[in-house]
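Case study.
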Amino acid sequence: MVSRHRKLVACAVVLAGVHAAVLFAGFFAPYGYATQNRELPFIPPTRLHLIDSRGTFHSRPFVYGWRDDGSGALQVDATHSYPLRFFVQGSPYKVASLFVSRVHLFGVEEPGRIFLLGTDGFGRDQFSRFLYGGQVSLLAGLIAAALSVSLGLLAGALAGFYGGRIDEALMRGGELFLGLPWLYLLFAVRAAMPLHITQWQVFLLLVSVMGLIGWARPARLVRGIVLSAKERNFVVAARGFGASDAYLLRRLVLPQASGVAVTQITLLIPQYILAEVTLTFLGLGVAEPMPSWGSLLSSLQQYYVVSSYWWMFLPAALLIPLFLTYYLAADALQEHWKPVTL
Amino acid sequence: MRTRFLIRRFTHAALLLLAISLLSFALAQLAPGDFFDQMRMNPRVSAQTVEGLRSEYGLDRSFAVRYGLWLRSVVGGEFGISLAYNSPVGPLLVPRARNTLLLTGVSTVLAWLLAVPVGVWSATNRRKFSRQSSGLATSTLLTIPDLLLFLCLLLFAVRSGWFPSGGMASLGSRNPDLFHRMKDIAWHLFLPSLGLALATLPILVRHVRSAMIEVLDSPFMRAARSHGIPHSRLLFRFALPVAANPLISLFGCSVATMLSSSLLVEVIMSWPGLGPLLVEATLNKDVYIVVGTVMLSALFLIAGNLVADVLLFTVDPRIRRE
Amino acid sequence: MTTTPLTPLLQVQNLGKEYVQTQPFVRTQLTVQAFESVNLTFYRGVTLAIVGESGAGKSSLARCLALLENPSRGDIWFEGESVRNLAKNELFVLHRQIQLIFQDPTSALNPRFSAAEIIAEPLLIQRIGTKAHQRERALELMQLVGLSPDAGSKLPLEFSGGQRQRMAIARALALEPKLLILDEALSNLDRANQENILQLLDELQAAHSLTYVHISHDLPLVSRFADEVAVMHSGRIVEHKSVAELFAHPDHAYTRQLLHAMQPREGVWLGRSA
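After joint prediction, the assembly is written out as follows.
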């Protein structure tokens, strides 16, 4: 019991931390997501040093600058060092679209640069773009998963509770949706979108369609639970007191399904995040300048990037621990929410 | 009995396919814009030319008419006209579909060849490895995004040079020798199919393992074991036939994920299948290619499920009795 | 048994129920006949037992009597009024009069509710009284059936089997019904609990002139408290007599079989209590 809770709490803490970092990307990121440094393309991640070239130890970590060595290639310039500072003043950003702030968690003095995850072809800081991109990708996952499970809950409850024609119709409809190659369908939807709509509209439309397609699997699970819950004697007894269908569903049946609903959402979020990332990677999701984790990875479609610039893989690698946390959380939830039996 | 079952499943599949065609057609036609949007924005192309082109391609008719025309062209094998290639869609799709089938077919075989032994082994040895550790291993594999996996394989190809980093046949290999051509294709096929197999492997292993465990723990197996039947015979003649039922259903379900993942791997590894075609057509809003590709993939899916259903029917006597 | 004229409370005539299983695309349908041609009258203050082999027929009949399911054919009258043509709100009120108690009390109680909430639930559904009033009544009822009111906030799993069945009875009494249907309600209990609950039911019947319909497969148990017995076999009522008459002059072969099967047990009892 205790270890189960601990696992769940640990996952929740990690996820909350990630979401907070992404939500306050302006603060945690040293630079804006569109800030280009054309003179510093494809820089590997900046190394933090504690001991300088003369062997002196500095208590405050520092980074080196860059210089052109004359042939167009960039070299680390050990003559210029920039110490790491916290709570620095930097480029302005909006906090929750309410007020403007200039404070960033960390940074280095101009003209030094700190690129924790390196830069892309335009010299944009990948770390900052990772945080900002998370806003789009995480939000997409959350909205789509919530949409899918809500629809699935509704459909499953209706199908299981009323049975008969409604059940037939809903289950056949569900089969239709399960039978769709969802990624292909998403492409069809994307193809259908007119050229002149804003990025936000593209985003919302895509996310809605993703969510709408995925109702079938949660619906099936909920239906199973409702079917068995409906026959339990205490539900029959309540009917014997004249309870209406709404009462039965609300107080007796749906609580049994709530566990499944939450677990399903937790399992679906990473899948939908990945779907959005894949779409944007292929150039069909949200487009520049709105960053998404997919757009961070899209330059990897070129061979020279794949073979020479290993740090461009990092955003994808960072997805692994994130998804792992979601799956562990879902596991813990499943154990926690075993149906209550006597 | 059997024919009645087959007829039922086939009608069901056909209806499903029709519904999907209508759905994808409707979706594709939903947009106010179309293929010629770009052209319209070009001041050098007159509006009349654009309208003329539109009516030539039948884009100015009503939805029902367009759907009807399209259905007729499907029957004729044309699947409508590609606006970018200015030719019937059907012949464009066929070689691509063939390549996708080849890739997914080989990957499926590979994935199951790996998943079943690993799953069965892990189930029979589950006392040595606690549920936690094996669960963690499969979970970690599960969480590696397909995208990353395919990109890493690409990196491997580019860096090591052992395998080609794209395409289906080497340039300049107009070698008519069938054997050499097949060897070339196989060499190009290796990495994409390996990637696709690895992408679907964790889920398969997990399901095989749990299906086997459920069977191995059931009372009839305990009874058989108590009769002193040797372990290998127990496994092959008793456990596996019963576990076949959920596994065949799993096969039906896994076709869908395999198809979706194949799109990605085809684009990344430049395998000339339906995937890259669809991406290009989507960017161009080449409506009929998009619809045709969606239909084809749905067809593969349905066919896969149908095969699974028929297999189940032959293998499981309980279903036959229904 | 009193000789004053009995008032009929519930009457059923030619009641029948079948369950049909349909399969898509297949012509034949599977029909299961649960019971048919049932004619019974239940009087105020009288206990009628329905006995027969364990099967769906009796429970199915119980549910139809409790207005939980619709029979396939036949009529039901409650206090002279036909039940079939009632409007929704009239049916809603009618539910107060007839209550069903299940065989397994554990499954009949919502595991997530407290004892007081379970017993007050009928009042909540029927919107009788305020929340405070409902809780008060629930505690009253607990006391009535022999449960300590202090246990009002405990969950069902904290009670024993016998106590749970009492809870179910308390809940059934909340709406002050005139008719209680007990579907094998005592079968899962041990002898001591059975005795206690039978005594409780006796007291309640005497105090409120309740009508009981006792469904059971246990003939000896039935013989100790029922006034009339109806024997059910293959979905039909084959015999319907007072208890004494049934034991003295059984007509149907099946009844005789039942009586014959209980003989040795009778011998054991007599041996003990004599």
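Observations recorded in class. The two ends of chain C are 25 Å apart (CA to CA). Residues 266-274 of chain C have pLDDT under 50 and may be disordered. We will return to this complex in the next lecture.
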